[in-house]
Write a structure and sequence with these properties.
Layout: H1 10-31, H2 46-60, H3 66-82, H4 93-105, H5 107-123, H6 146-149
Helix pairs in contact: 1-2, 2-3, 3-4, 3-5, 4-5
Length: about 160
């Protein structure tokens, strides 16, 4: 029996995914979902909406040009963090492009894209380089005075 259901074109599916991810990032940023990654976040404005529009467009065209989509999504994630917008969920968008790159060009391309995305997130302010990031014991300054080098005395 022949099925009469039509499957949507890949571009339409990718456009739906792009819009869905952009709306999800917007909702997560608006509600403050996720760990705090900057000390004083900037409120969402038309620039943030424009960046999310670029995310939706890049995800819609990711099968046609996966390398370009990865570069654009990395740039948007970096711009988002540099503008100090809330919501670290934007860091997930380059990973979608990494998966697409690996699926279309092979695992080596996907691995190269993942390394590029990881370096982008590390050198950007997500979250390690941000000024308001909570620091652990390894990040505290050490004292080099003589009493700090002596073992603690238990009385």
């Amino acid at each position: 029996m022949v099925s009469t259901m039509r499957t949507p074109a890949p571009v339409a599916t990718d456009a739906g995914i792009g819009v869905g991810v952009a709306v999800l990032v917007l909702a997560a940023s608006w509600t403050g979902t996720g760990p705090p990654w900057i000390s004083s976040p900037r409120p969402l404005d038309p620039v943030a909406a424009g960046l999310l529009g670029v995310v939706a467009g890049a995800l819609a065209l990711r099968r046609r040009s996966p390398t370009s989509a990865l570069v654009v999504l990395n740039a948007v994630a970096l711009a988002w963090s540099a503008a100090r917008y809330p919501g670290p969920l934007i860091a997930v968008t380059p990973l979608i492009a990494c998966y697409t790159l690996a699926a279309l060009r092979g695992w080596r391309w996907g691995l190269a894209g993942a390394v590029m995305a990881a370096l982008n997130m590390r050198t950007g302010s997500i979250p390690a380089a941000s000024p308001g990031h909570a620091r652990g014991p390894a990040d505290r300054p050490r004292s080099t005075t003589a009493e700090s080098l002596d073992p603690p005395h238990i009385s």
